[in-house]
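lol ok so funny story. i was supposed to be doing the assay writeup but got distracted and ended up predicting the structure for this chain instead. priorities right. anyway since i did it might as well share w the group, maybe its usefull for someone
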Amino acid sequence: MAAAEAGDTQLLLGVGLIEKDTNGEVLWVWCYPSTTAALRNLLLRKCCLTDENKLLHPFVFGQYRRSWFYITTVEVPDSSVLKKVTHFSIVLTAKDFNPEKYAAFTRILCRVYLKHGSPVKMMESYIAVLTKGICQSEENGSFLSKDFDARKAYLAGSIKGYVAGFVDLEVSNRPDLYDVFVNLADSEITIAPLAKESMTMGKLHKEIGQLIVQSAEDPDKSDSQVIQDIALKTKEIFTNLAPFSEVLDDGRKRVLNLQALKQKRLPPATENFLYHLAAAEQMLKI
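and the output, tada:
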């Protein structure tokens, strides 16, 4: 248990504070430890305080260079000691994906900052979680890191995979932005160096990739036909997964039978692909 808790506390990378003052200026006020200018500028853009439309997004998260960032933004009430600040954002960076965990922690840090108006008090709570995995306060609430299971964060459906389209080929030179890059114009599929180990291609991967490229380069096919081809292939993949699934006792949900999958003795890349497909579709037993 102690080893597990120690490992969990090593997931945090940093904490930062962004403020919007009564003059409308948005400033990066403080962080621990120091951060790069590139990450700082990214987080300033991602927090809603610089938006001209003035829409308040209480919580946002994303990934940058294999690390995750979590941003909670609040409006400062008149009763707060922060008299020259109208809004502020607390930023956490971490190695793991767990929106629920970091939303809870940033909410506590926000309450601490609203009460004391000093990063010092906020830092005390951050260090407590960083070193012990827990911070406790009757006034601001308690946070216990081990209460938030990383596996449930993925399986709860908070993330099912990101797909983005680009028209600028310069993106291909930014492997930090993708795991897999499909270049339809040149009929090429590129896997980012950091993702190669977890994305070793098997027969099934190659079939999918070839279908996408061949369908997209067919001059006689419209965009809707390309989409239909991909949809049919997706349905076929789910058919491959069906023999390794079972219905739970309530009869309402199918889950992966991992033992059945392993007994099939599929190639490692194919087994890994089907396992992660089941995870993405919330078919793993929690």
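The first strand starts at residue 12 and ends at 21. The chain has a mean pLDDT of 81.
back to the writeup now i swear
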